[in-house]
Amino acid sequence: MKLIMVKEHHSPFPNPIRLKKGELVHIEEKETEFKGWVWTITKSGEQGWTPEQFLVKGRDGKTAVVKRDYDSCELSVSAGDILTVLQEINEWYRACKENSETGWVPVRKTVVLNNKK
């Protein structure tokens, strides 16, 4: 699926978190405008938003095991940029630019292009 950015997006997080399947992380519930995301902290101190679906929370509610590899890299894009959607989760698209750069963009800043010709 192709989409076009209708608003620019620049990541406020220059150092994305990178998680590996099986890794143990600390999680914090923080206020966010997007449901389904938790603030995650690795043993090495990396921090960032992670979809709850990618984690198995521990009984204490403060730790979790990562279910799959993940990185929180957000794309910096301009209005008019065309992207290819790789995944949609919790009001965000994981998408790819024409130059193969991959990352997350908020759904609300996009419009899906009609693929019919």
Can you tell me about this structure?
This protein folds into two domains: 2-12 and 73-112, SH3 Domains (SH3 type barrels); 18-71, Roll (SH3 type barrels). The strands form three sheets. The chain has a five-stranded antiparallel sheet with strand order 11-10-9-1-12, with no helix packed on it. The protein has strands at 2-5, 18-19, 24-28, 37-41, 47-51, 55-57, 63-66, 70-71, 82-89, 92-96, 102-106, 110-112. It contains no helices and twelve strands. 0% of the residues lie in helices and 44% in strands.
Please summarize what this structure is.
With 117 residues, the chain is mainly β.
Strand order of the largest sheet: 11-10-9-1-12
Q: Report strand %.
A: 35-45%
Q: On the 0-100 scale, what is the average pLDDT? A: 93
Poorly predicted runs of 5 or more residues: none
What share of residues is helical?
A: under 10%
Question: Helical stretch count?
Answer: 0
The first-level CATH class name of the largest domain: Mainly Beta
CATH topology of the largest domain, what is it called? SH3 type barrels
Overall outline:
elongated
Helix-and-strand structural type: mainly beta
Q: What is the string of SSEs from the N terminus onward?
A: EEEEEEEEEEEE
Give the domain tally: 2
What Rg do the Cα atoms give? 15 Å
User: Quick one: CATH superfamily of the largest domain?
Assistant: SH3 Domains
